[in-house]
């Protein structure tokens, strides 16, 4: 089924606001006037929200898999893209997309709109970036990355595009002429990128750090946001702050001028998949693994809506004090443990040990994984997190993350041995 579906709007705003997705909130975008937002979720839907009324207005159902990224295009239009590799362009109120861009052969994970509104850039795990003319025409394909491309951002003057990848590089692509990109080698796989109004670039790494680069690509500092991978990043419109959301469940708010950690926003301890500032830079929206969109005071770090601090039952509550369970907490957004629990964005781990890779029932695995000769054992699971999913299981949809501590890997494996027995 496709189309925008109207939602009933509650007269009690605090009860209706920012709750509506049936899965983790993977993507967020706010309109230029700050009055509306759009979110994308692992539940395969996008929702358009009224921020002034704190209510959901419409649900967009089109994609056959997770909606990984969204963008507001102006003129009451939006773009959504996801794990099905498709990009849909919508006009608010219409029942079907105006246009569907197809060409990517793997999940699309990031979108960016050019400053003049004429071009949509997409980043995909097929290792390409594509530039789509919104007025129509064939896309320009940028294909020099050697691993999944996870983020794209236009420079504020619109003359270049910045892309980041698991291949440990930032690429700055000139958009006029035939000049090759500037390639900046980085020390870690990269998950996200943002460009400030002054041209400075901020990128989020799998090592939990935010790296700063000048517009020309010169390294200009770094800040440790936390111990877990940064998976979403935003620069406030006034240029003062950077927000870095992490798979560990916190959001680091960084002072750009001093390159220091100003404050840390602490939610329910589940991965925060998306973060965006309001146009006035005063409010921060975050989307997390508990299906809720939260609003925060960017200056103080306090939640704007106390009711949004309520959380669903902790699936790991029974394992309190277990180090392996705490390591696994970063995985609960995508994986369940019990035989009576369904697949999520990733397959259930129930009965994983002794099972061949890509054979869990009821989950649509990629053809690349089906060709791998791996049986899950304590040793192979440990190896997965030692070298990273991209190196050990190429073709996976799994976000790149590594566990550097041998003790933590051992604790995780021991926990899984206990928790996944059928």
Automatic annotation (TrEMBL):
Keywords: Electron transport, Heme, Iron, Metal-binding, Repeat, Transport, WD repeat. The keyword Lipoprotein does not apply. One of its GO terms (molecular function) is metal ion binding. Residues 319-420 form the Cytochrome c domain. SUPFAM superfamilies: Cytochrome c, WD40 repeat-like. InterPro entries: Cyt_c-like_dom, Cyt_c-like_dom_sf, Cyt_c_1A/1B, WD40/YVTN_repeat-like_dom_sf, WD40_PAC1, WD40_repeat_dom_sf, WD40_rpt. This is Cytochrome c domain-containing protein. It comes from Bradyrhizobium jicamae.
């Amino acid at each position: 089924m496709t189309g925008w579906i109207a939602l009933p709007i509650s007269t009690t705003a605090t009860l209706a606001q920012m709750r509506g997705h049936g899965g983790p909130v993977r993507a967020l975008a706010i309109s230029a006037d700050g009055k509306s937002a759009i979110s994308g979720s692992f539940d395969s839907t996008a929702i358009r929200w009224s921020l002034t009324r704190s209510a959901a207005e419409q649900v967009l159902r089109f994609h056959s898999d997770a909606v990984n990224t969204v963008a507001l295009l102006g003129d009451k239009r939006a773009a959504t893209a996801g794990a099905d590799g498709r990009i849909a362009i919508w006009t608010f109120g219409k029942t079907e997309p105006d246009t569907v861009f197809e060409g990517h052969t793997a999940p699309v994970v990031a979108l960016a709109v050019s400053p003049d509104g004429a071009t949509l850039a997409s980043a995909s795990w097929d290792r390409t970036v594509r530039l789509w003319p919104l007025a129509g025409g064939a896309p320009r394909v940028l294909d020099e990355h050697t691993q999944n491309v996870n983020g794209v951002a236009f420079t504020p003057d619109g003359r270049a595009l910045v892309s980041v990848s698991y291949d440990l590089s930032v690429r700055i692509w000139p958009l006029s002429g035939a000049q090759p990109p500037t390639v900046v080698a980085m020390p870690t796989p990269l998950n996200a990128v943002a460009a400030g109004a002054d041209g400075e670039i901020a990128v989020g790494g799998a090592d939990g750090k935010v790296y700063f680069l000048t517009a020309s690509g010169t390294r200009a500092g770094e800040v440790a946001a936390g111990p877990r991978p940064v998976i979403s990043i935003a620069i406030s419109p006034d240029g003062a702050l950077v927000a870095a959301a992490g798979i560990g469940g916190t959001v680091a708010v960084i002072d750009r001028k001093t390159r220091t950690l100003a404050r840390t926003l602490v939610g329910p301890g589940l991965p925060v998949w998306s973060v965006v500032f309001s146009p006035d830079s005063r409010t921060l929206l975050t989307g997390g693994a508990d299906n809720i969109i939260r609003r925060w005071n960017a200056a103080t770090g306090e939640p704007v809506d106390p009711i949004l601090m309520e959380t669903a039952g902790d699936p790991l509550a029974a394992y309190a004090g277990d180090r392996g369970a705490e390591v696994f907490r970063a995985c609960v957004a995508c994986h369940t443990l019990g035989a009576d629990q369904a697949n999520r964005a990733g397959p259930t781990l129930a009965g994983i040990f002794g099972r061949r890779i890509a054979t869990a029932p009821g989950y649509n695995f990629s053809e690349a994984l089906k060709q791998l000769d791996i049986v899950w054992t304590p040793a192979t699971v440990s190896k997965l997190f030692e070298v990273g999913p991209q190196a050990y299981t190429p073709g996976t949809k799994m976000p790149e993350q590594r566990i550097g501590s041998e003790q933590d890997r051992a604790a995780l494996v021991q926990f899984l041995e206990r928790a996944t027995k059928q």
